[in-house]
Write a structure and sequence with these properties.
CATH architecture: 2-Layer Sandwich
Oligomer: single chain
CATH class: Alpha Beta
Strand content: 25-35%
Largest sheet: 6 strands, mixed
CATH topology: Hypothetical protein Ta1206 fold
Number of strands: 6
Number of helices: 4
Structural class: alpha+beta
């Protein structure tokens, strides 16, 4: 497991990369939400009321920051996160 600080617009989140047998689980979280890879379930995050955004096809935190958002929870949408923006842009609203 690898943990890295991720700074976006002067705010810091924690990035996590966990190597699994077939792919990596990647997540960056902050005080008010997180961006996650496709290994995690956006519907479960929505059901819990989390502000979360989903990206697909990433192996690293850097990939996550550059990837386009594919899905968002209702709570993330209320914070201005939209499908199609980059992970970095989404994080700027979730840190």
């Amino acid at each position: 497991m690898k943990s890295v600080d991720v700074v976006v617009n002067g705010k810091t989140g924690i990035g996590v990369e966990i190597e699994l047998p077939k792919a990596s689980l990647v997540l960056v979280h902050g005080d008010s939400g997180f961006v996650m890879c496709g290994y995690l379930d956006i519907q479960a995050a929505d059901k819990k009321g989390d502000a979360a955004a989903l990206v697909r096809g990433v192996c690293t935190v850097n990939d996550l920051l550059e990837a386009d958002i594919a899905a968002v929870t209702k709570a993330a949408a209320k914070k201005g996160v939209k499908i199609g923006m980059t992970g970095r842009d989404a994080l700027s609203r979730l840190l």
